[in-house]
C-alpha cells in the first residue's frame, strides 16, 4: 500500500479503484483508508476477496464517515462478521452519498443483519443492497425490511430519488416462507424496487406463478428459487418489477 501513498491523494482523475483478489489483509486496508481519506475523485472502490476482516471493515467504516464522493463499495467474499457489520452500519448513518453497497459472501448472520438494519434506518442515499450468502435467515430479513420500510422518498431537482431502494440481493441466505412474507409485503408497498434476488433459499413453495413483465426504463429481474406464492401475490400489486426468472 505504501506504493500508493502520495499518488492517490493527489490523483483526482481516477474514478474506480479495483484491488480485488489481492491478499491485502486488515493492515493493508488500514493503510489504504488512510491514503484515501483525502481523495475526492474515486467513486467506486472494489475490495473483493482481499482477506478483509472486522478490523479492516472498521477502517473502511471510518473512511465512509469522512468520504463524500464514493458511490459504490464492494466488499464481497471476505471475512466480515457481526462486529464488522456493526462498524459499517454506523458509517451508513453518517454517509450521505453511498449508493451501491456489496457485502456478498461474508459472515454477517442474523446479528449482522440486525446491526446493518439500524444503519439503514438513517441512510437515505442507498439504492442497491447486496447481501448474497450471509446466512441472515428470517430474523435478519425481518429487521432489514423493517428498516427499509421506514424510508421516506425525497424528490430532488436533479431527478435523483434518494431513500429509494431499487435492488435487493438476498440470495442464498437460509430464508424460508416466513422471511419471504416480509419481502412480499415490502414489494407491495415499494414503487421503486426493480430487482430482487431470493435465489437459493428455502422458500419451498411449489405453486409457481409467472408474471411476464414489460419493458419500462430498464429490464429488471426478480429471481425466486422454487416459487413463492406470497411473493407472486405481492407482484400483482407491484408496477415496477418487470421480469421474473424462476
From TrEMBL:
<dbReference type="GO" id="GO:0005829">
    <property type="term" value="C:cytosol"/>
</dbReference>
<dbReference type="InterPro" id="IPR032675">
    <property type="entry name" value="LRR_dom_sf"/>
</dbReference>
<keyword id="KW-0343">GTPase activation</keyword>
<dbReference type="GO" id="GO:0006913">
    <property type="term" value="P:nucleocytoplasmic transport"/>
</dbReference>
<dbReference type="GO" id="GO:0005634">
    <property type="term" value="C:nucleus"/>
</dbReference>
<protein>
    <submittedName>
        <fullName>Uncharacterized protein</fullName>
    </submittedName>
</protein>
<dbReference type="GO" id="GO:0005096">
    <property type="term" value="F:GTPase activator activity"/>
</dbReference>
<keyword id="KW-0677">Repeat</keyword>
<dbReference type="GO" id="GO:0031267">
    <property type="term" value="F:small GTPase binding"/>
</dbReference>
<dbReference type="Pfam" id="PF13516">
    <property type="entry name" value="LRR_6"/>
</dbReference>
<dbReference type="InterPro" id="IPR027038">
    <property type="entry name" value="RanGap"/>
</dbReference>
<dbReference type="InterPro" id="IPR001611">
    <property type="entry name" value="Leu-rich_rpt"/>
</dbReference>
<dbReference type="GO" id="GO:0048471">
    <property type="term" value="C:perinuclear region of cytoplasm"/>
</dbReference>
<keyword id="KW-0433">Leucine-rich repeat</keyword>
Amino acid at each position: 500500500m505504501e506504493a500508493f501513498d502520495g499518488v492517490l491523494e493527489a490523483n483526482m482523475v481516477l474514478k474506480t479503484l479495483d484491488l480485488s483478489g489481492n491478499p491485502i489483509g486488515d493492515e493493508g486496508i488500514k493503510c489504504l483508508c488512510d491514503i484515501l481519506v483525502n481523495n475526492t475523485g474515486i467513486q467506486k472502490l472494489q475490495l473483493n476477496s482481499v482477506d478483509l476482516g472486522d478490523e479492516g471493515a472498521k477502517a473502511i467504516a471510518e473512511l465512509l464517515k469522512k468520504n463524500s464522493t464514493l458511490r459504490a463499495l464492494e466488499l464481497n467474499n471476505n471475512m466480515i462478521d457481526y462486529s464488522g457489520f456493526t462498524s459499517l452500519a454506523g458509517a451508513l448513518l453518517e454517509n450521505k452519498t453511498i449508493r451501491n453497497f456489496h457485502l456478498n459472501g461474508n459472515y454477517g448472520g442474523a446479528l449482522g443483519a440486525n446491526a446493518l438494519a439500524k444503519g439503514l434506518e438513517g441512510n437515505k442515499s442507498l439504492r442497491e443492497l447486496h447481501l448474497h450468502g450471509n446466512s441472515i435467515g428470517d430474523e435478519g430479513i425481518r429487521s432489514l425490511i423493517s428498516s427499509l420500510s421506514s424510508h421516506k422518498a425525497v424528490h430532488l431537482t436533479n431527478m435523483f430519488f434518494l431513500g429509494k431502494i431499487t435492488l435487493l440481493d438476498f440470495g442464498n441466505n437460509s430464508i424460508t416462507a416466513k422471511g419471504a412474507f416480509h419481502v412480499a409485503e415490502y414489494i407491495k408497498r415499494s414503487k421503486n424496487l426493480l430487482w430482487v434476488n431470493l435465489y437459493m433459499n428455502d422458500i419451498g413453495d411449489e405453486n409457481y406463478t409467472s408474471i411476464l413483465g414489460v419493458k419500462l426504463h430498464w429490464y429488471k429481474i426478480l429471481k425466486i428459487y422454487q416459487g413463492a406464492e406470497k411473493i407472486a401475490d405481492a407482484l400483482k400489486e407491484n408496477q415496477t418489477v418487470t421480469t421474473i426468472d424462476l
